[in-house]
């Protein structure tokens, strides 16, 4: 079953919405973004959620000690590194790491393997954005890593394209932020639920 991560959670209501719709993980952004959340707010949300969902903190070129502090105070289960972090940093973090690789062309497995993360996340490159752009990339660029069991697909996914993505890439998980939001921002319950339903339907064709 393809896992679903709903990223850019900013409130308890949004976190509950993602959990009830069947998300495997929620993402909380601790980096410059319209979706940024303060650590004390994330900590309060995560305390109330308990262990019902995987809580992932998103960082962009953050200092190790700052990440360690936020992981501890917010009870994060994983971190997602979305910047230019070096491979050595992955081993220094106290929780499993999802490393984001911006896709500019065909992915070279030998290059990305140097990070040895828990999962490899592939996202679109958009000038001026570290992530959360809402823009998709050419999935053909993932040809050399197809079949990996720890691949997460991100970048411009929405209910209209996620089924095709699941069938073509067969990722461990799909990650979405913009594609399940209202035009003015904030998670849209109907879009979240439609997105997850599309993934579940696509799963039926994949096994
Ligand atoms: O969501 C953000 O604002 C964000 C900010 C900085 C780094 C990563 C961010 N989100 C991640 O970006 C991708 C793609 O998101 P989208 O669906 O295209 O909006 C995804 O991995 C999010 O976790």
From TrEMBL:
<dbReference type="InterPro" id="IPR011060">
    <property type="entry name" value="RibuloseP-bd_barrel"/>
</dbReference>
<keyword id="KW-0822">Tryptophan biosynthesis</keyword>
<comment type="pathway">
    <text>Amino-acid biosynthesis; L-tryptophan biosynthesis; L-tryptophan from chorismate: step 3/5.</text>
</comment>
<feature type="domain" description="N-(5'phosphoribosyl) anthranilate isomerase (PRAI)">
    <location>
        <begin position="4"/>
        <end position="197"/>
    </location>
</feature>
<dbReference type="GO" id="GO:0000162">
    <property type="term" value="P:L-tryptophan biosynthetic process"/>
</dbReference>
<dbReference type="InterPro" id="IPR013785">
    <property type="entry name" value="Aldolase_TIM"/>
</dbReference>
<keyword id="KW-0413">Isomerase</keyword>
<protein>
    <recommendedName>
        <fullName>N-(5'-phosphoribosyl)anthranilate isomerase</fullName>
        <ecNumber>5.3.1.24</ecNumber>
    </recommendedName>
</protein>
<dbReference type="InterPro" id="IPR001240">
    <property type="entry name" value="PRAI_dom"/>
</dbReference>
<keyword id="KW-0028">Amino-acid biosynthesis</keyword>
<keyword id="KW-0057">Aromatic amino acid biosynthesis</keyword>
<comment type="similarity">
    <text>Belongs to the TrpF family.</text>
</comment>
<dbReference type="Pfam" id="PF00697">
    <property type="entry name" value="PRAI"/>
</dbReference>
<dbReference type="GO" id="GO:0004640">
    <property type="term" value="F:phosphoribosylanthranilate isomerase activity"/>
</dbReference>
<dbReference type="InterPro" id="IPR044643">
    <property type="entry name" value="TrpF_fam"/>
</dbReference>
């Amino acid at each position: 079953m393809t896992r679903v991560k709903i990223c850019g959670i900013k409130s308890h209501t949004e976190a509950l919405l993602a959990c009830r719709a069947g998300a495997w993980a929620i993402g909380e952004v601790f980096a410059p973004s319209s979706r940024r959340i303060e650590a004390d707010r994330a900590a309060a949300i995560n305390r109330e959620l308990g262990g019902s969902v995987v809580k992932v903190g998103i960082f962009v070129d953050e200092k190790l000690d700052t990440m360690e502090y936020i992981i501890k105070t917010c009870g994060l289960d994983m971190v997602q590194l979305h910047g230019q972090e070096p491979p050595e940093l992955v081993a220094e973090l106290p929780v499993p790491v999802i490393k984001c690789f911006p896709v500019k062309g065909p992915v070279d497995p030998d290059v990305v393997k140097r990070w040895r993360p828990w999962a490899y996340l592939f996202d679109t490159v958009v000038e001026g954005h570290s992530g959360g752009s809402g823009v998709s990339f050419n999935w053909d660029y993932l040809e050399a890593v197809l079949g990996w069991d720890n691949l997460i697909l991100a970048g411009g996914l929405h209910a209209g394209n996620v089924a095709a993505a699941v069938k073509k890439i067969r990722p461990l998980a799909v990650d979405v932020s913009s594609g399940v939001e209202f035009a003015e921002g904030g998670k849209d319950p109907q879009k979240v639920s439609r997105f997850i339903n599309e993934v579940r339907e696509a799963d039926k064709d994949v096994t």
